[in-house]
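Notes from the 1:1 (GR / supervisor)

We went over the backlog. Supervisor wanted to see one worked example end to end before approving the batch request, so GR pasted a single chain during the call. The sequence is below; no edits were made to it. Supervisor asked that the structure be written out right there so they could see what the output format looks like.
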Amino acid sequence: MRATRRRWMTWWLAWLTLLVPLGSIAAESSIDAVWKPQRATFVYVGQTTFFTCEALQQKLTLVLRVIGAHEDMTFDRRDCKNGGRTRLQVTFRSPIAATPENLRALTTYDTEQEIVSRLNGATLPTAADLEHFPASWQQISFAIDRRLRLSASDCEFVEHVRRQLLPHIAAQVIENRIFCTPGSHAVRAPNLKISALVASK
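Structure output shown during the call:
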């Protein structure tokens, strides 16, 4: 009797699965998104690990790409000094949900922007001009994601990223176990886990 019931339940569950279109499952995890222009100042002050301007730029590029930024980012290194206090200006675009509020914010301009646009003979984009694309929320672990190329010596760097870059993008901290001791090297990669909005490929 029990074997018959198990077979019946197995058949019923399989039938229910067939009734749900496979495409609808994927659609629920994908949202309509647009690119938001960003500009951030990243100041790194390390007590244990130091970077050259070029090395810091390479690390920031990797991190920004993994957490959702568009590949066309640019860096301003004019105020950057190797070692100690390292300062970079980074301009990039990151995904945000294409809600009416976000679209309105992206296409609302101040007087200075309007004047500069007219002087340059340019037209400021409207909501209809914005590029739309599918994006999804993805969990990213700084401790185990090999794309980030991080090690235990990057503890202070990850802490700077959490405080200075994450507030600029659509991201939420899921787990924050970053314990950096100045003058002492950590034994494992910094454990920071986030959920970030990333463009679907």
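Supervisor's comment: The first strand starts at residue 31 and ends at 45.
Batch request approved.
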